[in-house]
Amino acid sequence: METLSFQFPAGAPARGRALVGCVGSGDLEVLLEPGSAGTLSIQVVTSVNGSGPRWQQLFQRLFDGQLPPALNIDIHDFGATPGVVRLRLEQGLEELAHD
Question: Where is this chain's protein located in or outside the cell (predicted)?
Answer without folding.
Answer: Cytoplasm
